[in-house]
Each structure stands twice: as C-alpha cells, then as structure tokens.
Specification:
The protein is an alpha/beta fold and 550 residues long. The chain folds into 3 domains: 161 residues, Pyruvate-ferredoxin oxidoreductase, PFOR, domain III (Pyruvate-ferredoxin Oxidoreductase, domain 3); 179 residues, Rossmann fold, CATH 3.40.50.970; 103 residues, Rossmann fold (3-Layer(aba) Sandwich), CATH 3.40.50.920. β8, α8 and β9 form a beta-alpha-beta unit. α1 packs parallel to α4, α1 crosses α5 and α5 packs antiparallel against α6. The chain is globular, with a radius of gyration of 25 Å. The model has no long low-confidence stretch (mean pLDDT 96).
Amino acid sequence: MNDVSVLIGGKAGEGINSAGAIVAQLLNHLGYRIYIYFDYPSLIRGGHNFAIIRGSERDIGTCRNPVDFVLALNEETIERHKEKHSQNTVIIANKDLVKNAAYGIPVKAILAEEKAPVIMGNSALIGGFARVAGIEWEVVDAVFRRHLPKGADQNLAVAKRAFDLFDPVRPIKKGGNLPQSLVSGNEAIGLGLIRGGLDAYISYPMTPSSGILHFLAELKERFGISVVHPENEIAVILMALGFAYAGKKSAVGTSGGGFCLMTEGLSFAGMAEIPLVLVVSQRTGPSTGLPTFTGQADLQFVLHAGQGEFPRMIVAPGDAQEALFWSERAMDIAWECQCPVFILADKTLSEGTYSIDPAAARPLSGPGAFLWNGSVPYRRYEKAESGISPLAFPGTTDAVVKVNSYMHDEAGITTEDAESSNQMTEKRLKKWETLIEMAQHPPCVTQSGIPGASTALLCWGSVKGVCDEAAAELGIRVVRPIVLAPFPVDPIKQALRGVTRLIVVEENATAQLAALAERHGIIAHEKILRYDGRPFTVDDLVARVKEAGI
C-alpha cells in the first residue's frame, strides 16, 4: 500500500485533532508525505468532529475516497461516513459505543485499569490501529514521546494495551521518503512572515485565520515579535498602519467578515503608500455563512476592496510549501513597493496539515525597501519614475515624515490642487508596472499534469492538490496562477498554448477566476464549481471532469 487514508472521528473534546496529528506522524515516520483535512461544526460544545489523514509517497494536498482505516470513537463516526467505506476498509472502534466493529477495543476498561482520563481514549484507538496496520511498537513509542511529551508514559500505556489485542492484518508498506516537517497552512504563513522580517502581527480572531495569531503568540518572545489582539478589526488595521509608519514590518490576519471592517483602513494604506501584508483566509459566506468550512468566494471582493484607485498585489498559495515561500515574498514586495499585498488563503489551506521542506523555500533576494539617503529636504511622496518614493521614519534626523489620507503633495501636505492630484494619482499607479515585473520572479503561473495536453484545468489556491492529481489520472494539464493581481495575462496565455478545451475549477458559485480571466480574453469552455463548504476530492473531480466531456 503506497497510498493510505485514515479517518478518525468522535465528539468535540475527544482530541480528534491531536489524535490525527499522531497518526500523521506515524505515517510520516514510515516514509510518507502527509495531508490532513480537519472537519468540525461551528459549535461551542458538541457536534461531530473528524479528520482524514492521508499518506502518499508523493507530495499531496487533498483527500481520496474510500478510506483504508476508520478509527471510530463513537457510532456516529461509522454512520456519517459510510460513503467513504469500501469492502476493504478496516474499522477500529471503541466497542463500548460501537456495535459489531471488527476490531473493537474496550476503551472504558483500559482507561480504568490505567487510571487514565477519558481524553486518552484516542490513544487506545491509535495503539490498536498501529498494530492492525503493522507499525512497529518502537515507532509508536518514539512518536508519542516526541509529539506528546506531556503524559507520554500514560498515553503509551493505554496505547500498548490496545496494541497487544490484535495481530497485523493490513500492513502499511514503508515509503521511500525521510520524515519531513508537518505544518498547517496557517503555521506556514506565520513562518513565512517571520522569514520576511515580521515585526508586528495584529489580528482579531476569526476562523480560519485564527491559527496564525495563536501560532505567532507562542513564538513572539523567541523572534522578538509584537503580537496584538485589539478590540476589533478596525483597530487591527489602523494599529498595523501605525507600526508600518514607524518602520516596523506588520501584517494582519482575518477572514471575509473581518476584512469588511478593514476596507477604509486599506484605502488609507493605498493613499498614504504604507506597506502592509493582509492575510485573508476565506470561508463559506456571505455574512457568517459556514464559519468552519471552506470556499473561494472572496477573490473579487479582495480584488476591488477599498474606495478609489491604488495598486495592490494578491497571491494565492496552493499548499503549505507555497504559503511559506509567498508569505515571505509578500512582505518583501509590500516594502519594496510601499503598497498592500494580500495572501489569499482558505480554510482548506489554513487548517490543513502538509509535509514541507523549509530549506526549499528560499526566495530570490529583492532590493529591499527604498530608504531615504539623507538628502534634504525630505519629501515622503517625492516623484519617481517607478512611483516608489524614499522611506524615512519618525525620529530620523532631518526628516519630517508626513503621511496623509487626504490628497497631498510631495511633502505630504494636504492639497486639493488639480495638478498635484493628477501627479500623485499617476505616481501611485506607476507601481502597477513594478508589481507586474516582480510577479514574474519567481514564476507567478505554474503548470503540472501532462505537458502538451489539449485539455487543461485552470484553478487557483488550495484546489491545486486535487487538480494536479485529477489531471495526472486523466492525462490533461493544469495551469494555475499564484499571483492574481496584477493578473498575469501573458504568462497564463503562454502556459495555455495548444489548449483547445479549458475547464475552470473553483470552490465558489460564480466562477470568480473565470470572470477575471474572461476580462483579459481567456475564455473557459466549462466551469466545475463546488460551493457547499467542502473541498473537492480527487474522485469527485475526476468524475465531474469526465461529465464535462473530455
């Protein structure tokens, strides 16, 4: 078995996420690349939680049906996921709550005998799974001790009791890879921002971006970062602008509903030419929508948010490896061009877990921020061919640093003069040309699948993983822009040479990428859309592409 999927499910509070992470590490140590999908309702307490852990010998970023193993803490896990079972699916369950499980574990008795808390019931299931899957106890012991150091001995005692109940019946073959780091998309974004020189991260918690706030709060002392949780999203963006005005690299994180409140501050950043990175992680909307489920419905909103006209860049990484790279690059570009740069993610990317290689994420070195050379008088908005004026910060000798949300002259003084207004508007818009150039290095459009195939999928963001696998199965190619603004028209057209049938794949109801592409003369023949809050699986997408008549 060179591709294995494990589903673990139970009630909220039973440690489904941590159990999923342990299963992932077991597969990681067997030489598999990992992807984890977490699913949970937007309830304070209760509800059904589950995780699907997939391991493969190649890099992956999506799930497949059916699953090979089910670890069921309750009967609901069996009933809810019957469509993911096959005749070969092995069910390992808490036999106190699940009837007729082939591999039932007396969880209640084990916990009582080991004097262990209820939360350790998932360790019993993991122990039983490891034995049935032929995973050596030494691997289980090493993974628990490294990834559950608190209470490792007791967790291992519980797991060993279940491990000893069974014989190996469905051994998982060892893969050919060395273990890699497993990180969520949110963690990758946080690490990328740190690598980009982050000084301050400001955020009001909003699923699915909240993990960045929690992650960076744990690292703030180690890296000397200010991490702030203000009272609302308006305060978030204004505080970030204040940090940037003072010369500190800042970023904010939110989802669509929180970003709504930031749009006036975004326009302030556009007019005042203040560098800022904004992480917007999408969920199903509008309004509160499905707060804990995924979607790609905010592209047009982020593309057009804010009043007036000002340049921005939008990058949409497809997995954690790209999130690590492009978050660092986003910080560089924001400060090189003195404009807002968006990292557009979604729940699938933000909360999914991936195998990554941190050493592979070294970006090209940019010129850095354009700093004032000391020549007086200092003019914050000095005219330049590139549209980028020299930066200085409050407290700099001989520099009076004025930034202004009003129309202003080169010195930052408010003006309503027609000529000055024209000059400053044209100066700001010149940055589009610089952004277009920066978007080419590294490549802003990727190609995968079968080179030269006449049918292609056009997609963006976290749909990358599922499109790549579906295309490989179907013998077609995938074209995916990572940079969505400025829209990379020429690179996309180059990548689509020879394509006679173009199918757009998106997780929204209105085909927002397709609409953006059509404005630039790139016309899709078919659109495959999903908007129920759940991501495509490979099997789903393959079936729908076939229905589209390839």
